[in-house]
Amino acid sequence: MATMKEVAERAGVSVATVSRVINKSGYVRLELQEKVLTAMGDMRYRPSALARSLRRQETLTVGLLLPQLDQPFFSRLAYTVVQALFTKNYQTLVCSSEEDQLHEDISVDMLIRQRVDGVIATPIGSAGQAIRALLDQNVPVVILDRDLPSFKVNKVFSDHRQGGMLAAQHLLDLGHRDIAILSPSDDAASVVERIAGALSVFTQHGVQPQVVKAGRDERGDYYARGYALGKQLLESGKRPTAIFALMDVMAVGVLRAAAELGLRVPQDLSVIGFDDIPLARQSVPALTTIRQPTDDMAKVAVETLLAYLGDRDRAPQTHVLPTQLIVRESTARRA
Q1: Mapped to the 3 state alphabet, what secondary structure does the chain carry?
Q2: Domains of the chain, first to last
Q3: 308 - beta bridge partners?
Q4: What's the average model confidence in pLDDT over 244-262?
Q5: What is the pLDDT of residue 59?
Q6: The pTM of the whole model exceeds 0.90
Q7: Pair 145, 71: CB distance under 8 Å
Q8: Which whole number is the average pLDDT over 182-211?
Q9: Of 174, 223, 285, 318, which residue is 20 to 30 A from 155 by alpha carbon distance?
Q10: CA-closest candidate to residue 1, choices 63, 58, 44
């Protein structure tokens, strides 16, 4: 394998010039840059990432802290973040907090001990305990998906309030007035914003939906909770004509409950979800939902973190990406 000295000799420059080109440090004339890059290509020279990281006191590793990896939305976020970082020569340490404070604390402690260059995190709850612990150790953070307004750090999330408003307006346009909102029990900002957006639209039209918080079973299975509470709602004396589930996996659980009770979707019941996971397109009937730009969120989070690592004096930025109503087969005009 070629050495830096051999590259310098081939390009007719000093070793210091080759080093400046590789590390993008110091001024090098464009003509000399091209000579060095050509020589590197001809000799198939690859700089040592380990040596560069040691010189810069970097690990070229980023932590990714998510609430539940077995949820399709978060698993897709993880996949896209890992791929985006890999193209930038970074490795990813992926942690799942399981929506549990102890899990989150242990994961943060591990990431700090591993000396990650930065962390992309979807925090649990509203206190931001994990984010505060990372910032106390001067670890750069990008908050992803769930906002913590009190923290002045880089943030990337979709417009959850807009998504809630889109879902509510869609159901109202279809003539529904007896509506239930099926929500996870946590106090994540994303869930709070979805409910607030939906209620703002419903209130304007004099509609008071029933808000039911699903909670989690011991396995954290939102599909099971969506099924159980969906069945409970549909067997009640005042059955809603439409259900807005704040997660697609919960909405699919409602579809199963409706089928078991002999209700036709969408003729007897309209169901709308949130996230647009792959299962939404594959369910029967295909699920109307609010699409989050999952891949774009992940890529913007990576770009934002790496930009900050390159310039710690950058002011924190907040990126809010729009949501989109995706109409499929599970919603229809009220009979």
Answers
A1: CCCHHHHHHHHCCCHHHHHHHHHCCCCCCHHHHHHHHHHHHHCCCCCCHHHHHHHHCCCCEEEEEECCCCCHHHHHHHHHHHHHHHCCCCEEEEEECCCCHHHHHHHHHHHHHCCCCEEEECCCCCCCHHHHHHHHCCCCEEEECCCCCCCCCEEEEECHHHHHHHHHHHHHHCCCCCEEEEECCCCCHHHHHHHHHHHHHHHHCCCCCEEEECCCCCCCCHHHHHHHHHHHHHCCCCCCCEEEECCHHHHHHHHHHHHHCCCCCCCCCEEEEEECCHHHHHCCCCCEEEECCHHHHHHHHHHHHHHHHHCCCCCCCEEEECCEEECCCCCCCCC
A2: 4-47 (no CATH), 57-157+294-321 (3.40.50.2300), 160-292 (3.40.50.2300)
A3: none
A4: 97
A5: 84
A6: no
A7: no
A8: 92
A9: 223
A10: 44
Token pair of 205 as six digits: 């039209």
